[in-house]
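Could you please consider the sequence and fold following this short note?
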Amino acid sequence: MHLKKNILIFLTFVFFSFIIYLLITKQIIYPTIIPMVRNDAANLFADWTVILQANLCIDKGYDVFLDNPCDYWNRKHVYGEILLYLPFIKAVPKFYFLVFPIMINLLFVYTIVRLFTYQVNIKYFSLFILILNTPVLLAIERANIDIIIFVIMVFIAKNKNIIFKHMAIVFAVMLKFYPLSLSILFFFEKNTKKIITNLLIILLLILAMIFFQWGNLLKIFSNEMQFTGYGYGVYEFSFIGGFKFIKELTIYIGNKDYYLVKYIYLFLVVFVPVGLINLYYFKKLNQHTSINKMLIENNFENKLYILSSALILSCYFLLSNFIYREIFFLGLIPFILREEKNENDNNFFSFYFYLLTFKFLFSSILTYISRNNLLPNFEPLIVALKHSLDFYLISIVLLTFLFFMKNFLRSLPYKYRAI
C-alpha cells in the first residue's frame, strides 16, 4: 500500500514538474505572470538572481543595501544579511544561477504534491487549480525566497526535535522578518514553563540578530517600496492595500462621481457575505471536536495548519505583499482534508476546501484578465473582486485561528501546568 502511494506521489510530482517546465519554457505563463525582461527576453529566477548579484557586488565594495549595480535592474538587497555569505559563487556560477533554483523549485513542487496526497481520498482534480495558479507559478518562475520559507515551515511541522525547531525558525527569520510568527509552534508544548522558555529563547536569539544587524535593517526598511506589493492591483495580497484601494477608488460615469457605489459594493459584496458566513459557521465550529482538541492532538496536520495560519494572517494584516505569499494557503490543506473526511453533518470543512480552491482559480482568472487588459473599463472592479476574494478566505482562516487561541488560553490554567 505504501509503495503504491509513494509511486503515485512520485508520478504526480513528475507530471506537474513537467507541466510547469512547459508553461515556463514555452512562455505560456507570461500573459498572466509579469516577466522580468532583459534584452527582450524573460529572465528566469529573477528574485534569486538579485541575491547572487548582491553577493558579487559586495565583493566589489558596494553597500548592496543602498546600491546594487550588479543587478540588471539595480534592485537593492532587501533580505537578511545571511544571504550575502554564499560561498564560491564565482567558482561555480552555473550551480548557483541555474541548478540550485531548479532544485529548490522541484523540492517545493514535491512538498506541495506530498501535502495534497497526504490523504488517501484526495480530490486529484483540485491539484491542477491549487498548483497551476498564479501565486505558485510566480513564486517558481522568480525562484522567490518564500519558497524556502514554505519548505522550512513544513519541515518544522514534521520534525519533533526542539533544537531543530529553534534553528529553523531563527534561520527563516534571518531570511525575512515575518517568519517570526512561526514561534506560535511552541504553544503545542505541554506546560506553561516550556512554552515561556521556548518563546524567550527565540526572542533572545532574534534580539541578538537585530542588535548585530540594526544598521542594515534600517537600510532594508528604507527600501520598503521594493518588497511591498502596494499599488500592484491584482498582484497584491494585503488588507492595508485593499483598504487603501477602496478608499482611493473613484467611479466616474460621464462627469459625475458615483462614490456611493463603492460603499454599496463593500456592504453587499464584502461585509454581508463575510458576516453571514462566519456567523453561520461560528456555532458549528464551537462544537467541532478537532478544533477544540487541536492543541491536545499534537500532530503534523494540526501544527502545519496553525503555522500556515500564523504566516498568512501576519502577512495579510501587517504587511503589503505580492501574491506569491499566498502559497502559504497550501499549508492549510492536510488539516482541511482530514477534517472534511471525518465530518458528518457539519459541512464547514467541505465549504472551506472549495472556497480555497475557488479563490485560487478565480484570482488567477482575474489576474489573466487584468494582465492582458481584456476589460480595461472594469479594471477597478477586477481589483476589488480580487481583494474581496482574499478577504472571504482570510475571514475563515481568522475565525478558525481565533478558536485555536481561545482554546489555548482556556486550557492554560488547567492542562498546561508547569513542572
User: Anything to note?
Assistant: The chain has 16 helices and six strands. Residues 289 and 343 are 10 Å apart (CA to CA).
